[in-house]
Amino acid sequence: MGKGRNGRRRAGAGWGLAALLAAGQAVATPAPPPPRLDAVQAANFAALALDCVDREYPNKIAHRLDGAADARAPSQLYPAFYGCYDWHSAVHGHWLLARLAQRFPGEPFAPRAPGAGPAPDRGQHRRRTGLPAPQRRRILRTPYGLAWLLQLGAQLRGWDDPQARRWAQALEPLEREAAARLQRWLPKLTRPIRVGEHSQTAFAFGLALDWTQVSGDRALRQALLARSRDYYLGDRDCPLAYEPSGQDFLSPCLAEADLMRRVLAPAEFAAWLDRFLPAIPRRARADWLAPGVVLDKADGKLAHLDGLNLSRAWMLEGIAAGLPPRDRRVPALRGRGAASRTRPGGGVRRALRRRALARQLRHLPAGAAGHSGRGRRAGRSGRGRALNRRRRAGGGLNAPAEPPYPVAEALRPAGTMAPTPSSPFRPHSVSRPPWP
Asked: Is residue 5 within 8 Å of 298, Cβ to Cβ?
């Protein structure tokens, strides 16, 4: 998930997440079934991964240098996973191709996917994939990268194909190494990591738990279940209104809920979700969660928000699947999940720009807003007139301008309010819908 000049390598935050959406699980509720991935969409996502899995540069290498031998080209350090800008994105891209080839074996991209071609030499797994040597096992890649490696292994294990089975056998030693590193790390991690990027623990734990079901690794499964309960079982009132941050591609709140539906039985999960996300609507609607909007796709970090929309859709469907069959929240979860697959339209983006501009104009010195028609119209409102009176009383044009609103506040959707000192961690809402 790195920065990029041409925009192609930014897709790592969203490639496989979109393909995962095709695995939607049925729930006996009035909610519409999740849409299915068709061959055209699959080919589009496969093209993103095929475009970069063998493209070595640009590249971001993230490992400790213990000597001159460690300063080498990516293809020499990681002969299997050297493309897509960084190691974990290359692993993610291979998983996406394997999943799409399994689901669409007759499509032109399928022969180029992992599992469809010759398997690598099992004895060369460490050299080919670039995990540190045994003497450096204390080094842990981000849990995100290790979790996607396990997800790739789970995908190959579940593919009933001779070539895929050979790939799974070749990858098995690396899976064991990744699982062992996670298991050694868990007892040392005293607190969960609640961010919207690579180091988040909830998302990684969920992928790793999926792998333990396929692989039968009971030791890692029990360690993950115990840590998940320790970290998250007592959580309540997650501040979903504070999301997203400007560079998120994962939702801290939704990822935690998607993890706990793997940990708890449906009835227990439903009660936990009541405490954790009490604002989920009990009726079918899709406007209760604001989408991430990317205004500059040339900025690789800002473009993470495209991946956030896709990962949210996947998580919302998972949360719905973990609830009892007739839970009243399922239609809203499914409805918002379906809406998250669609990029916000031009009207939404224009409304965001207008709202940001109006708020910036309200913080200009008195008289400055009158140089544009938009400023004059903004100043005619009751609030605008009151602000102008206050500015004139404070010195008019000679008074220093107030600091502009932060971008996150300027783009805050209508219907949500900023945190207040009396309730620093709880979302506040009013009756208006969150989108114009």
From this structure: yes
Dihedral (C-alpha) 13, 131, 116, 101: value to the nearest 10 degrees?
-20
- For the chain, how many residues are written? 436
Q: Give the position of tokens 């981000």.
A: 142
DSSP structure string for 207-228: HHHHHHHHH--HHHHHHHHHHH
Query: Which backbone phi and psi does 423 adopt, to 5 degrees?
Result: -145, 80
pTM above 0.85, yes or no: no
Largest Cα–Cα distance in the chain?
80
CA distances from 367 to 146, 152, 375, 381 (A): 56, 60, 9, 15
Neighbour-count burial of 426, counting CB atoms closer than 10 A to its CB (0-12 exposed, 13-18 middle, 19+ buried): middle
pLDDT tens-digit series, residues 24-59:
333 333 455 656 789 999 999 999 999 999 999 999
CA–CA separation, 215 and 158 (whole Å): 10
**Cβ atoms 129, 152 nearer than 8 A:** no
| Residues 315/258, Cβ–Cβ less than 8 Å | yes
- At 359-385, the pLDDT tens digits run 555 555 555 444 444 444 444 555 555
Closest CA to 253 of 283, 232, 228, 223: 232
Neighbours of 12 (CB within 10 A): 30
Q: Which amino acid is at 142?
A: T
User: Which structure tokens are listed for 68?
Assistant: 């001159």
Please tell me whether the peptide bond between 244 and the residue prior to it is cis, using omega within 30 degrees of 0. yes
Give how far Cα 330 sits from Cα of 33, 291, 312, 368, Å: 11, 19, 15, 49
Those residues whose C-beta lies under 8 Å from the C-beta of residue 301, and which sit 6 or more positions away, are 3, 246, 247
